């Protein structure tokens, strides 16, 4: 579904991503993990069309998307839940969800999807007319995911879904992601914490210093210390 080949992204003279190669097959839950500053958010922003790569290729559903406009990529089936959620805090929950449906022309289907996301996140139904800025951090994360789902994406990209949330709330968010993936939605998730990754991931890529230093299946990484060693730079790994 998504093929990233030798992707390089720079901020001026600083190389944020250095020849990154990652693929995501339909139905997978692929995680990119790594320490702060590894280039994880840069990766998702580039895929969403917010940054232009200096080199490399990105193909989605067999078609090149390098440098595509964000709105065109969104209409094509890519949706991003950004780090920090970026909901419209002064708008109501209802109005935030309406933003997610703006690109939809199938109004009846969109209304059915709205009912489904509120079944998935019941708190949004309870707070439907309330101001989004009054929601807790976990509720705002649910709102951000629901808004992205209303775009009816083929691939949902999520940047740091556990950031700033209490452990119990993280469990709830991850349970929702697991249900979505089990229902057939393809996921590409960026995380700094590795605590819950292996419970949901199909495959994991460890990013350090803008480079992929480890790629393997979650099953293979469930035993041993390979992911920890790659993450922290043990066993001869070095930052770029």
Low-confidence stretches: 235-240
**Main sheet summary:** 6 strands, mixed
Biggest sheet: strands side by side, in what order? 6-7-8-3-9-10
Number of helices: 10
Order of helices and strands: EEEHEEHEHHHHEHEHEEHH
Integer-rounded radius of gyration: 18 Å
Strand content: 25-35%
Could you report the average pLDDT, rounded to the nearest whole number? Answer: 92
Structural class: alpha/beta
**Distance N to C terminus:** 29 Å
Helix percentage range: 25-40%
Shape descriptor = globular
Give the total of beta strands. Answer: 10
Overview of the structural elements:
With 240 residues, the protein is an alpha/beta fold. The chain has a domain at 87-152. It has helices spanning 40-47, 70-75, 93-100, 107-120, 122-126, 137-149, 167-182, 197-200, 218-221, 226-232; strands spanning 2-11, 14-24, 29-33, 55-60, 63-64, 78-81, 155-159, 186-191, 203-208, 211-217. Strands 6-7-8-3-9-10 form a 6-stranded mixed sheet, with helices on both faces. A 4-stranded antiparallel sheet has the order 2-1-4-5, with helices on one face. Helix 7 (167-182) links the parallel strand 7 and strand 8. The radius of gyration is 18 Å and the shape is globular. The two termini are 29 Å apart. The model is unreliable at 235-240 (pLDDT under 50).
């Amino acid at each position: 579904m998504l093929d990233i080949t030798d992707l390089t992204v720079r901020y001026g003279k600083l190389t944020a991503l250095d020849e990154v190669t990652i693929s995501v097959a339909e139905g997978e839950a692929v995680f990119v993990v790594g320490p702060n500053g590894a280039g994880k958010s840069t990766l998702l922003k580039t895929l969403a069309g917010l940054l232009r790569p200096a080199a490399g290729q990105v193909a989605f559903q067999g078609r090149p998307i390098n440098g595509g406009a964000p709105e065109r990529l969104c209409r094509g089936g890519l949706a991003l839940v950004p780090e920090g959620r970026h909901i419209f805090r002064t708008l109501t929950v209802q109005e935030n969800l309406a933003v997610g449906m703006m690109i939809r022309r199938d109004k009846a289907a969109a209304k059915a999807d709205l009912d489904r996301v509120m079944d998935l996140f019941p708190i949004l139904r309870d707070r439907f007319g309330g101001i989004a800025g009054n929601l807790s951090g976990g509720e705002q994360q649910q709102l951000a995911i629901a808004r992205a789902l209303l775009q009816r994406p083929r691939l949902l990209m999520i940047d740091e879904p556990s950031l700033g949330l209490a452990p119990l709330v993280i469990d709830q968010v991850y349970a929702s992601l697991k249900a979505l993936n089990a229902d057939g939605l393809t996921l590409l998730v960026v995380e700094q914490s590795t605590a819950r990754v292996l419970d949901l991931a199909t495959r994991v890529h460890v990013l350090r210093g803008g480079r992929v230093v480890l790629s393997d299946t979650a099953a293979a990484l469930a035993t041993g210390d390979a992911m920890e060693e790659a993450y922290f730079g043990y066993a001869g790994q070095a930052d770029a």
